Predict the 3D structure of the following.
Amino acid sequence: MWLAIIAGMDLRPFRMAVLTLVALAAPALCASSVGPAGCLRLEAGWARAMPAMSMAAGYGVLRNRCRYPVVVVAARSPDFGEVTLHESTQKDGISRMREIGRLPLAAGGEAVFRPGGLHLMLMRATGGLTEGARLRLSFELEDGSQAPAELRVARSAPQP
Ligand SMILES: [Cu+2]
C-alpha cells in the first residue's frame, strides 16, 4: 500500500527542489574549477608496472584547458612513497633520466608523458600493481593547488 502511495505521488515539487539546489550550487562549482588546479586534466593516464620492483612509470596526456599558463612543480600519490617528474633522453645509445623540477604548460597546451620521454617515476608502491588497478595521483601547481588525476595499470598504452 505504501508503495502504491509513493508510486502515485506527484514528484514535481521534489524535482523543483533538486533543480533549485543544483542552480544554487553551480556558481560554487564553477568558482572551484576556475582555479589553476581545475585547468589540468590527465587523459589516458596509465602506468606500466615493473615486475619484481615496487615501482612504475606513469604516462598520459596532461592538458591545460585554461586560457592562462600553469606550472606543475611536483606530483604525489597516496599509492607511492615518492613520485617525481622525469625525462628520458637517448645519447650515444645510452638512456638517461633526469628529474624535471618545473613543467610549464602554456594556455591550452599539453605535456605528453610517454615511454622514452617525459614520464612520472612512481617509487615505493604501497600496494599491488596488478593490471587494471587504478592509481591515485595529484599534480601540484606553483600556487600550491592540487590537480587530481588517475593512472590505470596496464601492459601498454590504452588505445584511443
Ligand atoms: Cu624515470
Summary: The beta strands are 40-50, 55-64, 70-76, 80-91, 94-99, 103-105, 110-113, 118-125, 134-141, 146-153.
